[in-house]
Design brief:
alpha/beta; Glutaredoxin; binds FE2/S2 (inorganic) cluster; 3 domains; 3-stranded parallel beta sheet
């Protein structure tokens, strides 16, 4: 029996996870990019391979909700897996951890599912509506969509993870899109990023533990004359300095506390 050993320190995103599984189980690299294909291969390999997760906390911190979906895919595919070093701790990313993942109200999906569940080729529309409703694609919604449409969870995740427009982590009340495009970069975007990180303690693609701010570094917001620029939700902030940036974030925090 072959064993794929997943070492958290070597895997920092979904693609790397797929690639690691694919490589260690001798699957062609192509399959590492598509969860659906990976699922099919794992199903075929049922009983002939096993997966060992050597540093579960690190892997879970890196993959967020996707960690649970990985375990479900392994279970669905009948592949045995072993989790080791549950107590081992490493620096965790300040993402919203999957174990604290908030329960979502699945009834909000009903109008969308009533409209699209039986329409062929509508999976992307359903996922887009799901993201509009929750701000991301919650893993529980994936399983709910699966029940209503008949598409397997692996297929839905395969489609969703293929497109970069879909997010799998809850985002904060304020989504900061910080530009590091050329104009912003030459006008000091790095110093702005440093100010955000200092003020909030988060890096790119992370959310503050209180769920208030999420940070996403982007390449151009289309208003280069205002560089350096960031957008927070629908509002654009230009000609930023580190001090101005800190003040904006403090004002928003006050605003949120006053609500
Ligand atoms: S480069 Fe930052 S807005 Fe265009």
């Amino acid at each position: 029996m072959k064993t794929a050993i997943l070492n958290g320190s070597e895997i920092d995103n979904r693609e790397a996870l797929h690639a690691a599984l694919a490589e260690q189980l001798d699957f062609p690299p192509y399959y590492g990019k598509n969860l659906d294909a990976l699922y099919d291969l794992l199903t075929e390999a049922r009983g002939a391979c096993a997966v060992r997760i050597e540093d579960a906390p690190a892997l879970e911190a890196q993959l967020g909700d996707y960690y649970r979906s990985l375990l479900r895919v392994l279970e669905d595919a009948g592949v045995s897996y072993e989790i080791q070093n549950q107590q081992k701790t490493r620096r965790r990313k300040q993402i919203v951890p999957s174990c604290n993942h908030p329960a979502v109200d699945l009834t909000l999906l009903e109008p969308t599912l009533a409209q699209y569940a039986s329409v062929k080729g509508s999976l992307i529309s359903i996922l887009q509506k799901t993201q509009e409703i929750y701000g991301y694609v919650p893993i529980d919604a994936v399983y709910h969509i699966s029940q209503r449409t008949g598409a397997s969870p692996a297929k839905i995740l395969g489609v969703a993870t293929f497109y970069s427009q879909f997010r799998f982590q809850a985002i904060g009340k304020y989504l900061i899109m910080l530009c590091k495009g050329t104009a912003c970069y030459v006008n000091g975007a790095d110093r702005i990023l440093e100010a955000v990180t200092d003020e909030l303690g988060i890096h790119d693609n992370e959310t503050t533990p209180d769920g208030l701010f999420s940070l996403s570094v982007v390449s151009c917001l289309g208003c280069c004359s205002l560089a350096p620029v960031m957008m927070i939700n629908d509002r654009t902030y230009g000609s930023l300095t580190p001090d101005k940036t800190r003040q904006i974030l403090r004002d928003l925090r006050k605003e949120a506390e006053a609500e």
